[in-house]
From TrEMBL:
Pfam families reported in the protein's UniProt record: EAL, GGDEF, PAS_9
InterPro entries: Biofilm_reg_signaling, EAL_dom, EAL_sf, GGDEF_dom, Nucleotide_cyclase, PAS, PAS-like_dom_sf, Rev_trsase/Diguanyl_cyclase
PANTHER family: BIOFILM ARCHITECTURE MAINTENANCE PROTEIN MBAA, DIGUANYLATE CYCLASE DGCP
Domain GGDEF: 200-335
Protein's recorded name: Diguanylate cyclase
Amino acid sequence: MARRWAATLADTKGVTLPPEELEPLLLEVANEAAVHAGSRHDGALLRFSALYAASPMGIALADPDGDIVEANLALGQLLGCSPEKLRGRHLTDLGSTDHDVSRLKAGLEQVRTARERYQERMLLDHAEDGQLWTDVTLARLPGDKPGSVYPVLMVSDANELHLLQERLLHQNVHDPLTGLPNASSFTTKLEAALGAGARDDIALIYLDVDGFKVINDGLGAGVGDQVLRGVAGKLSAVFTGHHDGFVARLSGDGFAVLLRGELAATEVVTLVERALEDLNEPIYLGGHGIGVSASAGIVVRAAVEGGAAELLRAAEIALHRAKEAGKAQWMLFDPELDARDRGRYQLGAVIAGALENGEFSLVYQPTVRLARTEELAAVNAGLRWNHPEKGELSSDEFYPLAQTTGMTVPLGRWLLAESLAATARWHARFGDAAPDVCVRLPTRLAIDPDLVLLVKEQLDKHELPAKALRLCTDRDSVLDPGGEVLESFAVLSDLGAQLVLTISGSADLELIPQHRLPIRHVILSGPVVDALDADEPAEADIRHLTQLITRARELKLRVGAEGVRTHEQAARLRQLGVLAARGPFVADSATGDEVDELIARHPGS
């Protein structure tokens, strides 16, 4: 090469330089270039070797077939063995499972043919600890010959990071107290079960622990938590293993179960009954044998019938019905009953608007003196809803709905204000012959702290004496645990209002001396009155009623009756000592104008 270049350089078109002089010069240039290139190559090789040895990342250099030629110390430490033991092994042998081996084979093939790099998180074998989560990178290094490739494996420890991610993921979809899947996880599972192409039957079960607050408040939150863990364990034991059973804790003491497959309602009910029976068995904690009861709502249907929201709503309604029916039992969702209830709920939702739009009016029931039925003793005022589509609705049809929607207080306030306004009108027209008005307040209004002020304001507004107002209550209100009803009524009695208690037996009557109630009137109601409607009342019924009236007289109470149907029944009541009564024997009800005419025909004394 030096001679060739010497000859070429010697031919300089007139400037002659002997080849023998050029050859040593060119050799010197070549040697110098070789020395320079060698020093750079050696420096790069030394730096690569130092980096390879000192790298905290595990590195394995392999031949074109994938057999490990060299492994650094970091890889040996990561896999729990010396680097020497890794030499000669194939890169794919490092995979811990068949799946990991397959992924390593696929990665090797890709870096040999097309990709510069292949990255994946996978399990590798650890010599002592079994399996290790790692982040693996396969790359290609150029070989000695053009087109040849040497694979290199780079590994970093991802075990702690992977376990942390798994733990965070588990916490995100599981309830920390019971370990069951949480509500979010349950919704995801349900939506997947109802997804496109679903052909299974679906059973959704909502379960709710009855009276859990008693356990939690009585024995402490710690015991309550242990009870919930016990409930979770029992539910899992019953349902897991049946029809891909999936049990979750939704919130508080509420649980849900999802079953799918070929399902019959009877089979699902059998499982639910077994679960409720198991929950009744006591759990012994801190010396206490704690047994719980639960209510369950069940929905069974084909997966293609509706979406998740509708299914969840149906289960919730069924659970609600089970609790209303007395708890500690299950209820199967009934589509026909649900259709009827939807109409009721729609009715309850528009009560507020109906009140504002003037759709409510007063309806009256006259109470007459039995000694002189032509005289009114009082008029009971109630509410009627003049619904634009459903017509006239009685209070029995909408008051339960008002209780649910929180409208009992506004309705009660309106009833009280309108009743006293009507009473003022009667006093203006009939003077002393005007009857008292009797109002039955809903319990929620009876315990309202503003009730006394409201009554006083209305009495003052209409310039009425307090004795013109009778307030009626019942056993449930008297036994209100907070005693707020009794406190309000005691203050109203001091103002002069007359208090009336509806009773159906001796136990109700004895509440008066027991609680020192400022009651002036009692109203007989229910079976004790109905018994006298027979052609020949039973002796026992007459004796019971006689004893009840005698006891009322001993307590210096005036006795009335409601629900009296016939004049014969009214006559029997009068003979036993009842002073006044109301019911169909006089008139079922009267509206505003009608009651004025009724008062005119039946003036009080």
